[in-house]
Amino acid sequence: MQTKTTYSNRYIEIVQVMVKYGFQSWLVNSSISHLIPNKILDKHLEVSREPIEVRFRLAIEELGPTFIKLGQMLSNRADLIPIEYVKELKKLQDEVKQDQSFNVEEMIKEELGEEEFETFTKINEKPLGIASIGQTYAVERDGKPLVLKVRKPSASATVNEDLRIIRSILRIVVRSSRNIAKMDPMRLFDEFEITLKNELNYSIEKRNQEQFYSYFKNSKTTTAPKVIKELCTDKLLCMEFANGTKMNDFIETASEQQKEVISKNLVKSFFQQIIEYGFYHADPHPGNVFITKDLKLCFIDFGIVGHLLKEDTTVIGEFLEAFLSKNTDRVIHSIKRIALTHEITKENRKNLQYQLHDLFQFIDQDVSTIPWASFSEKVMTIMFSYNIKLPNYFVTLAKALALVLGTALEINPKMNLLKEIKPFILKYQMHFLTSKGQRELLLDLVYGIRDFKSFPADIKEIIALIKKGKIDVMITLEETQPILDSFRNGINKLTIGIIIGCLLIASSSMAVAENATFINKFAIAGYVIAGILGLALTIDVFKDLFRNKPKK
Q: Where are the transmembrane segments (predicted)?
C-alpha cells in the first residue's frame, strides 16, 4: 500500500504565496507541484510584473514573522545575494500585533508556581513591548519595579513548523536553480535556524545578559539590567527595570553636549565589547538602548549576541588597522584571512586595489558629508564582484558595527569617528608589547615548536614513498650537508630566541615586585644576560646575511 504524503495548512499556504508572487518555476517540476492549483497561476498577473526582488520582499512580508526574520538576516548578506535584493530586503519591518489571547498571569503560575506568583504585587496587563516570540510586561515584586519577558505559548511550535517547511522547500529550490545553489543556502539556513532557536530559549538570553552585566559592572559608560535569577526559566526572563529613557526619546530633548557624550560613549562601548571582551550586543539599535541620568548606555534584549575567538579579534584588529591606515595590500591580506571563499587573483588584484583606494577617499571627508548609502553600496559591490563569502561571525559584527556607527553619527554628525576608534586600535597594537602579550606570543611559539615534532613523521612518510618507488629523488650526500647545517643553525637561533624571551618576561615580573630589593637585582641581571645573548644573536644573524650574499 502506497503511503500518501500529507501537508499542513501552513505548508499549502506558503506554497500558494510563492506562486502568487511568481516563484512557481521553482516548484512546478517538484514533488509538491500538485499543491499548485492551475487557477492560481493566472490569478496574479499584475503582481508578477513587479521586479523579482520586490516580489521576493512582498512574499516574505505576507508569510509572517519567521520569514521576515529570515529576510532581515539575508539583507545583511551582500556577500551572497545581489545588491538589488539587499536594498529591497532592508525595507522589511517586523510589525507584530498584541496577542489578545495571551494570559500573562497564567503563564507565570505555570512556570514559577502559585506560591511564587503571589509575591508579585502588580502585573500590568498592557505589554511594554511586543515581538513575534514574546511580550514584555512591567511588574512589581516586594514593591520593586521589574520587567518580565514572557514567551508566547504558541511561539515554539509555530517557529519550528516554519523552519521545517522552509528547509523542505529550500531543498527543492536548490535543485531547481543553479544560481541559488551557488549561494550555499543550506549552510546559511543552518546558521539562521540556530540563531532563531536560541532566541526561543530565554535561558540563553539570561546567560548572555549576566555575562554582559559582569563585564561592565564597574564601567563609566555601559551597563545592563541585573537579572533576577530565581524568576527565570526557559520561557520567562525577569530583570530589574532599565533605569533610564529610551535613546530616541532622550535625544529629542538632549543638549548638544549630552549628544556628544552619548555618541562617544556608544562608539567606545562597542569597541570595548569587541576588542577587549570578544563579546558584544549584536542588535544595538536605538530601541535596545536606554540612557541613564549619568549618561550611561543601558543595553537591553540580549537574544542575539556575538562571540569572537581570540584569533578572530586579532584578524579584525588587523583589518581595522589596515583600513584606517589606508593600506590596500594589508586590507586585501586581511580580507583573504577572514573570507571563507574569494576570487581575488593576481589578475584582478590591481583592480581591487583601485576600488579600495576609491573607498579610502570617503575617510578623508568630514563624516557629516560622507554619503553613507553610496559608501555601503560600493562595499557590497566589491564583496559580490570578487565572490567574497564571509563567515557568519563577521557578518553579525559588520551589521552591529554599522548600526552603532550610523546611530552615533545621526546623534552627533560632527563626531570624528577615526579619533574615537584609534585608541582601541592602538590598545590592540600595544597589547603585544605588554608582558601579557609577550607571554602569549611566547606560548604560541612554544606550541608551534611542539607541533614541529610531527616533522620527522612526515619525513618518514616521504622516505617510505621513495622506497616504494613512488618518488624519484636525485641528491648527493655533499648536497645534504649544507641543508642540515642550515637547519641546525636555525634551530639553535630559535632556542636562543626563546631563552631571551623567557629571561625578559621573568625579569619584567621580578622588576615590578614591591619591597624586594634582592629580587630586583636578579631582574637587572636577567636583563643584562638577555641583552648579551640578544647582541650575540644579532651579530650572528648579520654574519649569515653577509656570508650568504651572492657575489656579483
A: 390-409, 494-512, 524-542
